[in-house]
């Protein structure tokens, strides 16, 4: 049976660096998996992909020994169980707003008597080996805290058996708690948002839970690890591709436009 390396990382007192996959392509997943991330999350909620794309992406990640995770599109049992059966070792669930929803999500993650997960680990049995009820202790469930309702119900959510941690989506958290006054985005610098993020983190720690945060830059991610976050996501495949492409094009334009402006070498040397 496979052991979830994310548990080992946390037991060693280290934060986990998570990569984010929104492009439905196994080669993209393979490239990202080879870069040294601790975990990689396939985004079935907002990513440009569905389950048929996610399965080969999980397969492509296997060779790099990265911990495979999936953000499911919603708190729905079918997709949570299928993601686990495909080999995901962790599930991030969006929009968990109260204790009842947290308990429902937790029940999808584990086999009876600790939950209502149905047994049928199609790929997981092959890829992870010896797959059975002992996996109840290996899979990780992170409930997303994104709304004013969730903030109001933090204690109930975090006290729910079977929830291993929380994951903050700062864009939705900002929209959901600031009444439209602030726009969406990562790496919040507003004092009220920093205070709120740190409050959520503190309550998670008080309940013995792990805490994750979606970040836009390595600098911000390192900063929040200093606050105590256990898992940080830095950008994602779409943004990283766009940034690298933009930097290459900008650099080329700067060099060639500059050469033309100063009457650089002419073709043929004349």
Characterization of the model:
With 270 residues, the protein is α/β, with parallel strands linked by helices. 44% of the residues lie in helices and 15% in strands. It has helices spanning 5-11, 26-33, 51-61, 77-85, 99-109, 124-128, 148-152, 154-158, 170-177, 191-206, 218-227, 237-261; strands at residues 16-21, 39-43, 67-71, 90-93, 140-145, 165-168, 210-215, 231-234. The chain has an eight-stranded parallel beta barrel with strand order 1-2-3-4-5-6-7-8, surrounded by seven helices. Strand 7, helix 11 and strand 8 (231-234) form a beta-alpha-beta unit. The longest helix has 25 residues, at 237-261. It is globular and about 75 Å long. The protein starts with a helix and ends in a 9-residue tail after the last helix.
> Largest sheet, if any?
8 strands, parallel, barrel
* Helical content band: 40-55%
Whole-number total of structural domains: 1
Number of helices: 12
* Alpha carbon gap, first and last residue: 71 Å
Q: Strand percentage, roughly?
A: 5-15%
Helix and strand sequence: HEHEHEHEHHEHHEHHEHEH
The fourth-level CATH homologous superfamily is Phosphoenolpyruvate-binding domains
CATH class assignment = Alpha Beta
Which class of secondary structure composition applies to the elements? Answer: alpha/beta
Q: Can you tell me the residue ranges where pLDDT is under 50 for at least 5 consecutive residues? A: 265-270
CA-atom Rg in angstroms? 21 Å
What is the molecular shape? globular
């Amino acid at each position: 049976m496979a052991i979830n390396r994310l548990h080992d990382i946390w037991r060693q007192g280290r934060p986990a660096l998570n990569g984010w996959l929104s492009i439905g392509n196994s080669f993209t997943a393979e490239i990202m998996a080879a870069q040294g991330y601790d975990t990689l999350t396939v985004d079935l909620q907002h990513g440009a992909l569905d389950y048929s794309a996610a399965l080969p992406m999980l397969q492509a990640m296997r060779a790099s020994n990265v911990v495979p995770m999936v953000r499911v599109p919603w708190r729905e049992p079918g997709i949570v169980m299928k993601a686990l059966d495909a080999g995901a070792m962790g599930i991030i669930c969006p929009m968990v707003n109260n204790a009842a929803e947290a308990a429902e999500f937790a029940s999808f993650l584990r086999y009876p008597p600790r939950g209502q997960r149905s047994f049928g680990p199609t790929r997981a049995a092959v890829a992870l080996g010896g797959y059975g009820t002992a996996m109840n202790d290996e899979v990780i469930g992170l409930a997303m805290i994104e709304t004013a309702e969730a903030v109001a119900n933090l204690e109930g959510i975090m006290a729910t058996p079977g929830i291993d941690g929380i994951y903050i989506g700062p864009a939705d958290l900002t929209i959901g708690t600031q009444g439209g006054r602030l726009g969406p985005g990562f790496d919040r610098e507003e004092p009220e948002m920093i205070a709120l993020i740190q409050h959520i983190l503190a309550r998670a720690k008080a309940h013995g839970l792990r805490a994750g945060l979606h970040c836009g830059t390595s600098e911000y991610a390192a900063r929040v690890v200093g606050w105590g976050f256990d898992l940080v996501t830095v950008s994602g495949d779409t943004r990283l591709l766009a940034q690298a492409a933009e930097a290459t094009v900008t650099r080329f334009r700067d060099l060639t436009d500059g050469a033309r402006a100063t009457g650089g070498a002419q073709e043929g040397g004349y």
